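Q: C-alpha cells for this one, please.
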Amino acid sequence: MSPSRNRNVLVAVLAVMVVVLALGAVAGIRLIAGPPGGGFARALGGASTGPSGDSVPAAPGDPGGGDLYFPGYGNGGYDVERYDLKLRYDPATDRLSGVARVTAKATQALSRFNFDFGRLSISSLKVDNADATSEHDNKTELTVIPAAPLVAGRTFTVDMAYTGTPIGEAFNHTATGAIVLGEPESATEWYPSNDHPKDKAAYEIEITVPDGLTAVSNGVPGGSTLGGDGWRTWKWSQSAPMASYLAMMAIGKFRIFEGTSDGLRYYTAVDEAQPAGGVAEQCVRRSPEVAAFLATQFGPYPFDITGGIVVSLGTLGFALENQTRPIYPPSFFTAGEPAGTSIVAHELAHQWFGDSVSVGQWRDIWLNEGFATYAQWLWEEKDDGITAQAQFDRTYATPETDEIWRPAPGDPGADDVFAESVYVRGAMSVHALRMTIGDDVFFKLLKEWTSTKKGSTGLITEFQALAEKLSGKELDTLFQQWLYTQTKPPYPGR
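A: Here is the predicted structure, written as C-alpha cells:
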C-alpha cells in the first residue's frame, strides 16, 4: 500500500469516528476506547438495547417494590447481590457512623434509583467510584442519581458514608449498647437497602465498638481485632441470601457459647445481666437440639450456623427470627421449660419458613407465622408429649367470637399482619391441611417446599399448587375456608 493511500484511509477512518461520536452524543451514550482487537468503542451508559434491537432509554427505577400491603417498601430497577457494611457505634454518644458498599445488578436502564434509608446524614456517595448526587426525604426514601446512566444487566457498586443518631423503632438503646431488630422493616434505620424480602442478598458486616463490648450480627463469626484507639472490630459473614429486615446488630456485654453439635455450628449470646445458668440461658442453649429436631420435620437446616441472643431490654415485647441468630427478650422464658424451648422452636422454624423461604408478598405472612407456630406444636409433642392433634382439637373448641378466628390469616390486611389469628388459626390451618392430605404427603410437602424454594421467596398460591400436585387433591375449598373466610371453618372432614 502506498503512503498516499494510507493517508486517505486514515482520513476516512477519522471521519467515521467523528460521525460515530456525534451520533453517540445525540443518543446520550459515552464511548471509550476498548481493548486491542475488541472494537474501538463500547457503551458505558444511557440507553440499552431492547429485544427487537430498538434503543431503550434510561429511566428512573420505581421508588416502591410493588408490595400489595406496603407499596413503598423496596425499590425497582435493580437487584442487590451483596451488602458490605462497616459500622461504628459509640453508646456514650449514641452516634452511629457507617460505610456501606452495595453491589447490585441493574434490571433496566437506570437514570436514577432508590434505596430505603432513614434519617442519617450522608457525607459521601459514589456509584462505580464516581461521585453521585442524591435526593433524600429524610424519612425512608433516598434517590441516587449516578453521574452516567446505568445499562440494563450491568453490575454496579454504590459506596455511601453516613453518620448520625438513629431514630425509629428498630434501633433500641440498652444500658451497655444497642439492639437493632424489627419486622416488616428495620434496615432503613442503620443501612441503605432494597427493603423487601423479594430482594435477598449476601452480607459482610463489621461492627466497631469500644473495647469491652461485644458486637453480634448474622452468620458466621470472623473474630475481632483491637485497634490502637481502644476500639474493637467484630466481623460477621452471611453468605446465604438474606432479606434486609432479618439483618441484626446486638452490642453489649454477653456470655458467649459456641461450638458444634451433631455437625451443626452454633453461636449463642446471653446478656450478662441475665442470671448465669438461668432459664433463658438454658432454653436458648438448646437451640442446636431444637434445630436438629426441626430438620427431621422440614428437611436439612438451611444455613451454616444456628444460635440465638437473649437481650436485656424491658421494652421489647417480641422475639424475632433474625437469620441464624434469633433475638429473645427474657420475659419469654419466665414460664420456664417447656414453654421456653417452645419459643425457641418457633423462631428456629422461621429459619426454614420466613428466612430461607421468605414471603414474596407480606400478604402471605401465613407462610411464616402459621408454620412457625405449628412447629411449636411439633416440638411440644416431642418434648412434652402433647400431640399436635390434641393442640388442634383444644384450640378448635375456642368460641367463634374469639379473636383467634379473625382476621383471616391468608389475607389479614396491612394493619394486622401480626394478628393472633395469623399465628393460632394459621397453625390450625396447617394441621387442617395435614388431616386432609395425610402425614406422608404432608411431611413430603414441607420438605419439598423448603428444598425447591431455598434461598428465595414463595406465595400461598404456589404452596397450594405444590400441595395439590403431591396429594392429587383439589384443595381450593380447604384453603378458602381456613385462610380466607372471616368465620370459624368447619372441622376437617366433616
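A few notes: The mean pLDDT is 90. The first strand starts at residue 31 and ends at 32.
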